[in-house]
Amino acid sequence: MPKVVDHEQRRRDIAEAVFRVIGERGMEGVSLRDVATEAGVSMGSVQHYFGTKEEMLRFALGYMRERAGVRFSAELGKLKNPSNRDHLRAILRTLLPTNSQSRQEATVSIAFFSISNGNKEFRRVLADGYSQLLAACRQQLANADLNGELQSGIDVDAEAATLFFATQGLIGPVLIGSVSTTRAMAVLDHQLDRIFVPV
Questions:
Q1: Which tens digits make up the pLDDT trace of 111-169?
Q2: Which residue, 60, 110, 151, 163, could crosslink 15 as a Cys pair with Cβ 3.0–4.6 Å?
Q3: In the chain, where are the structural domains located?
């Protein structure tokens, strides 16, 4: 009986190899051949799934977002009856490079940003990801506002943007070790304390 090949899993495995190559050598180190070597497959196998380097990178970028989403859902699943504040804090914490997987995702994301100026598709995917995350932050604040959990006079749109972009600004410093994860979360908790009514 012929072996059943999970083609989507093969594509994900190649994307994981792309992430490892970027982590070790940067975006300039990515080629179909290098990724094939990293994945432990033949060059022909990579070309079977991706005709060009750009096609491979485009899939890897989309898969990275999917992987981050799964990681966030797992983190949220650990919380018992999370409040809107808990949910929002989990979103912000998930964005920070706090473990090996999120560090890899942050490194890969920065690498894609570095080449996105000349690539409309990469810019579109990155911008769409930003929009979705910002919308998620805004939704949690809007829910909290409806439940009377926010301080009076809070501008939901402005505070969602402040929290989201403050977190984005912390990613690089945490990644290179100039700010600890503990300090980064203290900064975010300070902002949440300013916005939410004390429990």
A1: 999 888 888 989 998 999 899 999 999 999 999 999 999 999 999 999 999 999 999 99
A2: 60
A3: 7-195
Chain segment 80-92, per-residue pLDDT in tens: 888 999 999 998 9
Rounded CA separation 137/168 (Å)? 13
- Supply the CATH classification number for the domain 7-195: 1.10.357.10
- Contact (CB, 8 A) for 47 and 33: no
Cβ neighbours of residue 191 under 8 Å, at least 6 residues apart? 162, 163, 166
